[in-house]
Design brief:
It is a single chain. This protein has 15 helices and 16 strands. By secondary structure, it is of the alpha+beta class. It has three domains: about 290 residues, no CATH class; about 120 residues, no CATH class; about 60 residues, Orthogonal Bundle (Arc Repressor Mutant, subunit A).
Length: about 475
């Protein structure tokens, strides 16, 4: 960021709801777990209602309203007891009716917020509104022509709109991850970023530092990766600053992000504000929500990320950082909870957290999978933590065991016994190894005796290497020191 400028960022997140059927008809809305979008026959999940045939009437799916209320409660929003649907008009091939049923002046939720962690501490991001709407279809562009697949048309969405509260790409990324955690903990969104379940439009502008007048914004459309959103925002901030400093003018436009080139590209101008000609949807009566129903939904909410984070810090003594990493993913958080349950000892929660946020997370990130798709089970991590704590395994040997567990899924004890990885704590067995290392490094031994104490670490490392990583490092320091000093 140039020191003379600051950025203003607002996000609009489209969250596809995990209902079984579409928002206004009974066509399937969810992709079976064993299939992908590409495996569903084109235009097979459609009917006259979601295909926009004349004379058809929408019927609101109650589950969509329930999920929207859950999202509102989890983001501290006000639930409007009276709200209604509106027609949003625009013409595009994947919008069969020529309008989208959405909400305008009376959305279901307003005035909420989410906390994020920044380098300067917690920051509250305002959520202006959450509204329900139907998704459009999908254009499939071929060589010289395009086709339209309406399987996605009518799939229920909530759009979650923030205030212009974020100043950096990192803050935008932190907000998106926090919101993603909320909707996946609730179970109202499958959270498959690759399939577009959770996608984001970013509004970005820059202004002179200290100014109260926002600059002209650009909108970056439909980015479905946390990292890509951050990179797109970083590029767009730098691009706008360069335009202004070179004497140009930032124009109001819609842009897309090219991840291969790491740039944003202009799609269409918005210099003349688009008139969506909103008006009340005549085929749906105004929606009145009962306060008792809201309270019933609230009583059934699961433990949410912020609540779990507080519990891990207060009851298990984890750091705020470790608790934040663990609760950033519902599957990882649930896995860690099961590890702690298997251990049965809260004092071992910290080393367990180190394993889950460290080696385990590294392995699943390298493979690009979720923890439940791996062969690693909670009992594997619990056994490793216990064996290291009891000095049966060294941390080095434990990493070897974890790598073998990752490939085979075998029990930890089976691997330890077969590979002969138990830590050697017998002084009689270690003494000749220490003697050989000292004799083979006479100069370093003399330097240690002359006062270079830091060389003790060198000797510990050499003995560990000589013992194949099996020597107990907790004993080695004192044993080597005694041997060196005679």
């Amino acid at each position: 960021m140039h020191p003379e400028f600051e950025a203003v960022i607002g996000l609009e997140v489209h969250c596809q709801l995990a209902t079984e059927t579409k928002i206004f008809c009974s066509c399937p809305a969810r992709i079976p777990a064993d299939q992908s979008v590409s495996e569903i026959a084109v235009n097979s999940n459609t009917c006259p209602i979601c295909a926009g045939h004349p004379g058809t009437l929408p019927v609101l799916n109650q589950k969509v309203v329930e999920f929207a209320i859950q999202a509102g409660l989890a983001t501290h929003s006000r639930i409007n007891l009276k709200n209604r649907f509106a027609r949003k008009h625009y013409f595009y091939p994947d919008l069969p009716k020529g309008y989208q049923i959405s909400q305008f002046e009376l959305p279901i939720c307003e005035n909420g917020w989410l906390n994020i962690e920044t380098d300067a501490g917690p920051k509250k991001i305002q959520i202006q509104r959450i509204h329900m709407e139907e998704d459009a279809g999908k254009n499939v562009h071929m060589s010289g022509f395009s086709l339209v697949n309406l399987n996605r048309a009518g799939v229920p969405l909530i759009e979650i709109v923030t205030g212009p509260d974020m100043k950096t790409a990192d803050e935008a990324g932190a907000y998106l991850r926090a919101l993603y955690a909320v909707v996946t903990y609730l179970g109202i969104c499958d959270g498959n970023l690759q399939e577009g379940n959770f996608r984001c439009d970013a509004n970005v502008s820059v202004m002179p530092k200290g100014s109260t007048v926002f600059g002209t914004r650009t909108e970056i459309k439909n980015v479905n990766s946390f990292r890509f959103v951050e990179k797109a925002i970083e590029y767009e901030i730098a691009r706008q600053i360069e335009v202004i400093r070179s004497g140009g003018r930032v124009v109001l436009e819609t842009r897309t992000y090219d991840s291969d080139k790491d740039i944003t590209i202009s799609m269409r101008s918005k210099e003349e504000a688009q008139d969506y000609r909103y008006f009340t949807e005549p085929d749906l009566i105004p929606l009145t929500i009962d306060e008792a129903w809201i309270r019933k939904i609230e009583s059934g909410l699961p433990e949410l990320p912020e609540q779990m984070k507080s519990r891990l810090v207060s009851s298990l003594g984890l750091s705020v950082y470790d608790a934040g990493v663990l609760t950033g993913s519902k599957t990882l958080a649930e896995f860690f909870d099961r590890v702690v349950h298997k251990l049965g000892n809260p004092a071992l929660a910290k080393p367990a957290a180190n394993w889950v946020t460290g080696e385990v997370s590294r392995l699943i990130n390298e493979q690009g999978i979720e923890i439940q798709q791996s062969r690693i089970l909670p009992e594997h991590i619990a056994d490793l933590v216990r064996l290291v704590h009891d000095q049966v395994l060294s941390s080095t040997a434990a990493k070897q065991v974890l790598a073998l567990v990752w490939n085979s899924g075998e029990a930890v004890e089976v691997i330890v016994d077969r590979e002969g990885l138990k830590q050697v704590s017998d002084v009689g067995s270690l003494d000749p190894i220490i003697q050989r290392v000292i004799e083979g490094n006479a100069k370093q031994a003399a330097d240690f005796r002359s006062g270079k104490d830091k060389l003790l670490g060198f000797f510990v490392g050499q003995v560990m290497k000589e013992s194949g990583g099996k020597a107990n490092p907790a004993l080695l320091g004192e044993l080597i020191k005694k041997k060196l000093l005679g």
